[in-house]
Amino acid sequence: MKRSCDVVTGAFGFIGSFLASKLSESKPILLTTKVRKNETGLPYNMAEGLDSLNNLDVDVNNIFHLAHDFTNKTINGENINIKAIKDLIVFCKKNDSKLIYISSFMAIPATSDYGRIKLDCEELVKSYNKSIIIRPPVVIDSAGGIFFKLNNIFKYLPFFLIPGNGNYTMYYVEVENLVDFIVKCREIDSNEILYCYDKGPIVFKDLLKINKKLVIKVPIVLLRIILFLPRLIGLKIKNLNNEGLTTLLTMPRINFKHKNYKEYKF
């Protein structure tokens, strides 16, 4: 008899690791795009498809799709993230599995490359009737995420560097709350877009501890150059990069009718 299970792609990323832990008792299949030492996940090559799943004798109930390739490389002229969604839909149709896609607030205006790819992926996901799309904004841990990191950097300094004027619309959700909702989405039958945020809209600089400090407004162009420099020597600084800056500068204000995750009753 086949074992029934859920699948998590991107299982060792920030959100994925919390989700994998939350689902641990049910022993989900964890797919990772980067196999690291001492990790038990199966390799997931988005360019090659779902061979690691097809070769397993299991019944897949739900696929939580978190993996995203930020390089945006193409396979036969097609963005790798789009290809991955198409492969997942084919698999889900064949196995009557539910697809839960973790998208982003950035798909609302779709002004960045990341937002446009997320929106394109959403359009494909919506074509499959057993699917749900979740749009989270900035995701933080209990310590405060990127805001905690910035406050900590300038904690003992008499000044505080902020990007531009700091007057940017922000929404955020704590990762534990997001993951709890993602898991509960297995119970939602409707095919819709779900918003998941704890706070917002708020102003970015209001989240920073800048009282009694000299606030230095760093020009955006200069900041982009500074953030690009580590890449020239092969360094990747998580959360502090140009992709994160674009998210900060272009996060949309939700000024249309929608339903936040706290309104769902299970």
Descriptive report:
With 266 residues, the protein is α/β, with parallel strands linked by helices. The chain is built from eight helices and 14 strands. It has helices at residues 14-22, 51-54, 80-95, 113-126, 145-153, 175-184, 220-232, 242-250, and strands at 3-9, 29-32, 42-43, 58-65, 74-75, 78-79, 98-102, 131-135, 138-140, 159-163, 169-174, 193-195, 199-203, 214-218. The strands form four sheets. The chain has a seven-stranded parallel beta sheet, sandwiched between helices. Helix 1 packs across helix 6 and helix 3 runs parallel beside helix 4 (113-126).
List keywords for this structure.
single chain, 266 residues, 14 strands
